[in-house]
Amino acid sequence: MFKHSLVYLGGFLLLISLLSFINIIYSYYFNLYLNLDSYFSALLISLLLGLILIFYKFKNFKLNSFNKIFLVILGYLTLPFIISLPYYFSIYNFSLIDSYFEAVSGFTSTGFTIIDNIKHLDQSLILWRSTSQWVGGLYFLFSIIILIDIFDKNLKNSLTNFLSFNSFEFLKQIFKIFILYIILTIIIFLLLKFINFRNFDAFNFALTIISSGGFIPVNEINYILNKDYKIFIFSFTLLFSFFSIFFSYNIVFYKKKDLNFFTEDFYLFVYLSIITLLFFIFFSEKNFSYYFLSICSSVSNIGIFFSREYTELYFIYFIMVIIGGSFFSTSSGLRLFKIYTLIKFSYNELLSHTKPKQVLLSKVIFDDNKVDYDVINKYFLSILVFIISISLITSLLCLSNLSFIDSFKLGLLSIMNTVNSSLFNMENFDFKNLNLFSKNFLIIFMIIGRVEFIALILILKKYLFKS
Fold first, then answer.
1. Strands, E, within 291-332: which ranges?
2. Residue 305: CB partners within 8 Å, gap ≥ 6?
């Protein structure tokens, strides 16, 4: 697929160098000289490594399924190291592990932070935090295209009629994603400006929201979202990272083809509508705008919230976080379409024993593609690995003298790449004073949540089940 396989990582290193340069210009323009030198280190290292990876000819590197996974994971391990440099070399005396923790949390769009008070940071470092999420969201979407043959052939068919992506088809899809990503970021920015966000806050929130991130540029946003219509519009912007990145493109440029453009987004729309209707029926006597915000923040795996008065249903919000959004969005989760397909398959299997003569179709509604057993096995195994992962990280965090409830919540949020807000009664959790053991495991599981569980299965298969 690539003429040189590591061009992919080199391109993102150059993008980080460009963002470092923008931060330097921003710091000079607004006389923010305190952390200026820290961005030069990120600029020089990312630029040098990016040029090496792009122009150096790596030989004998076959891009098979395992190497694709390795390439993506390598990016999640190395790119945050570059992003961590401005934290480490800043005037705030962040340790190396805290800097890397903050960088991984941003790059994986999780939102865990070791910073107690955002007001203590200068604006250039706040901007750096937001751009790290934006780059991470873009990296995640590109990685889905790289691994699409591994994840789901049916989802690949919603993009192309080719049996596999060649270089031209890959470049076409990532270019489309890049343009859509920028356009949607601008739209979110304009919507936030409409509800009186100042330019700096609107820009940082736009970078956070489109990437399904959890970093926010202020300590509290309730002073901005002080009217119901503002909360509703803000909640609506969170749904940009819930639906597919291609959703708006398919609506605008839709032509009748044999491709199932809207199947997953249709299910997500029905799912969101049912949840919203149920909340409206049972909680309409209260301020419904806050409940709508909690719904949108949960399903999109962003987790941003600013009130303790409407979080009594945090268990329901956790369920929404686990389900997640679209496969081609920046949200995490197990995916609604995957869960629905497994339920339908299980129902058909049970029905086949009671009514063996009945013809059962291996299709889901509004999708012309048949769901074969290979896809079902992948779906089932990914859920199994999720259960194992949440059990493992909960046990490991319990060993760090955390309570079982906090360990379970924190483990679930890290795997689902969702910030620990008041929505889950975790807003006061202190990551800075967390021991080294726990921080390292949170870093690992934040990355696991971004790589997708099926990739882990293929790695285990390569090393544990050799033929």
1. none
2. 293, 294, 297, 311, 421, 422, 423
Which amino acid type is present at position 322?
I
For residues 288-308, one letter each, b for 16 or more C-beta atoms within 10 angstroms of the residue's C-beta and e for the rest, the string is bbbbbbbbbbbbbbbbbbbbe
**Residues constituting the chain:** 467
Max CA distance (Å), the chain: 77
Q: What's the confidence (pLDDT) of residue 198? A: 93
Distance from chain centroid for Cα 97: 22
Place of tokens 């899809």: 173
C-alpha dist (Å) from residue 7 to 51, 62, 71, 76, 226: 9, 14, 10, 15, 47
Would you state the structure tokens that stand for residue 422, as one six-digit string?
Answer: 């008041």
In angstroms, the CA 144 to CA 126 distance is 28
The structure's pTM equals: 0.90
The alpha carbons of the chain give a radius of gyration, in whole angstroms, of 22
End-to-end CA distance of the chain: 26
Amino acid letter, 106: G
- DSSP class of residue 239? G
- Torsions phi, psi of 166, nearest 5? -90, -175
Identify the helix (H) or strand (E) that includes residue 150. Answer: helix 148-151
| Residues 389-400: tens digit of each pLDDT | 899 999 999 998
* Phi, psi of 57, deg, nearest 5: -90, 110
Q: What is the pLDDT of residues 312-364, one digit of tens each?
A: 888 999 999 999 999 889 999 888 888 888 888 877 777 766 766 554 555 55
Amino acid at 217: P
Quick one: which of 425, 442, 436 has its CA closest to 389?
Answer: 442
